[in-house]
Design brief:
Blueprint: H1 3-125
């Protein structure tokens, strides 16, 4: 083989290796571009997830505030009902006292009527 033929074969092989390397580099660049697109999509999804989490947190805070308001209102209603129950008990006790007094008054009226009758009978005798 001549020197020129060897050089030619060497150049051809080097050229082939260079083409293979370029092909591998292009493939790597394509994969990196795909990875970049995937990372962009992941970032976009993470941003959307973060926004949803913020909305959920805001909604939960509103719900917690409303729950606190409901608890406060329920406590106020309970206190009002307790006061009503106390008032009803006082009213009931007062009515019972009035009824007892009315019974005593009725008994006294009967005794008084009996006395009047006795006085009438005594006054007719003399």
């Amino acid at each position: 083989m001549t020197c020129s033929l060897k050089s030619n074969i060497g150049i051809t092989q080097a050229s082939q290796r260079l083409d293979d390397f370029i092909h591998v580099l292009n493939s790597m660049i394509g994969n990196i571009e795909k990875l970049s697109v995937s990372i962009d999509e992941i970032v976009k999804l993470a941003d959307e997830d973060l926004a949803l989490n913020r909305q959920a947190r805001s909604s939960l805070e509103e719900l917690l505030n409303e729950s606190g308001n409901i608890v406060g209102a329920t406590n106020e209603q309970k206190q009002a009902l307790d006061e009503i129950a106390k008032s009803i008990n006082v009213f009931n006790d007062t009515i019972q006292d009035i009824a007892a007094s009315a019974q005593k008054l009725s008994d006294f009226s009967i005794e008084l009527a009996d006395m009047v009758q006795k006085l009438k009978r005594l006054s007719h005798i003399e």
